[in-house]
Request: fold
Amino acid sequence: MIDYVVGIDVGSTSVKVLAAGLDGTDVAVASRRTPWTDLEGGRAECEATVLLDLVVALIHELDAVLAARGPYRVIAAGTSGMAEAGVVLDPAGAAKAPVMAWFDPRGGEEIAATPPEFRAAFPGRTGLPVGPMASLSKLLHLRGIGVDLTDATFVNLPEFVAHSLGAPRVAESSLVSRTGLI
Reply:
């Protein structure tokens, strides 16, 4: 039996699932373009279910490659990716809105309209500039267009993928620090 570690990366350009040996040697990778729908004005979004379906398809691809090499087991898996992009979940765990790319400019006006004291303290507390990159700005935008955020939970993409694949739904500190929600 061969042991592997697996990494899942949900990036701006591509989504990748990689298997490595315990010595760190790359064994196999499955990758496809991130399924953004490009909209006018530099906006980009995708449905959370589409993104998750892609991750699952890549896992199946990787499984086929690893199975062809012989019996194996995955002893550890991790996720990484765009912490600034995420999913707003209702109490049942369903997405309430599409995932907006971190580079999507939506929310810029809303965060610029927050009180001056908030904007002054924001970079020091979050390590992020005041602008649309922070997940907080996307949430302000969603609220402004009528998405009910009552009882909603925001999870960034690495957390969403991990939870969707069976991990507990938790916030990881280094990823949360990139959202502006800390």
